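DM from R.C. (forwarded with permission)

"hey, sorry to bug you on a friday — could you get me a structure for this? deadline for the figure draft is monday and I only need the backbone to look sensible"
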Amino acid sequence: MPRRTIPVALLLILIAIAAFVLPPARAAAPATASAAQETPHRWWWPPWPWPPRPPKPPHLPAMQATDVSVSGLSSGGYMAVQFDVAYSDLVTGAGIIAGGPYGCSQGRLDTATAVCSCTGLLPCNIKPGGTHPAALAATAATYEKQGGIAPLANLARHRIWLFSGAADTLVPRPVMDDLQAWYSRYTTLIAYRRDLPAQHAMPTDRYGNACGDLGTPYINNCGFDAAGALLQWIYPGLVPRSTAPDAGRMIEFDQSEFLADPEAHGMALRGYLYVPRDCEASHGRGCRLHIAFHGCQQNWANVGDQFIRHAGYNAWADSNRLLVLYPQTAAIYPLANPNACWDWFSYDDPAYARRQGRQMAAIKRMVDRLTRHQ
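My reply, with the result:
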């Protein structure tokens, strides 16, 4: 009579069940305190420990800065416009590179990627006046009446610096021209640079790809210091930038303090703050605050520290007592926000362009911390 055998498939099932229900054998007591803090073995599948979680970043330090301004590239440019408009009672000026008018997308992805930029699957429909600045201004007026943004009259004192690369294929010049037209309804203090053959990137005079290249890290050496130009326009009278290596400190901080579960809403767990030595010694007293919004695919996860170190802001910060806040986005896969853009087309929040928008309110809380409003 032949012996009975357990089928291989049944044996594998029994092993899997055992891994679920049986606790692992107890290990000997750890010999050191550090060993005692290792991640414990779980009692369910898979039968191995989770990798240890990275330590939580520190809190954003409280500072006493004043004179808040913003700037940004691409989706960061749109975010800078949104923040400038929604908090015009707080902000004094903005620098926009390859962005567009306030509320341009109207909360629609197809409009964002075919009318406000050429970044989607639909045919690009960029043309002069194509974003309809007058209609967008009417929407802004409605938000103002509803209390969603600060009074638009505040924009009269804002100093606005604009840049459009002549070779930009993702946000062509007509979109930036519409942004100029939109801002011109509220202020005459506008500088607009559009004569450089730059692609879609942050222009610098010392770092990055060739000026006409399109690609990561979206920083191009065009022989032009855009960060310096916009800061000098927003803050007249700045002294020349430092020519020494960065002397300040780059502080990593916890963004979840300002937005619960930030990665679920398109913001990273970690943000960064550049603090010049003089500002650190004075806890920000006598220092200004500038917020630099990176573009899509320019967050830390995509380009490391290239934007926060090489976009051009820090050398000006060192010589002019300027804090630079670098908030960070996170991708949301697979469809909502795979390129780690700022929310300027309602991928996370229908109130994306107003004060109550999640990302907008999170940045405002950071500003409050750095200006001692909380």
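R.C.: lifesaver. The two ends are 84 Å apart (CA to CA).
me: no worries. The longest helix spans residues 8-21.
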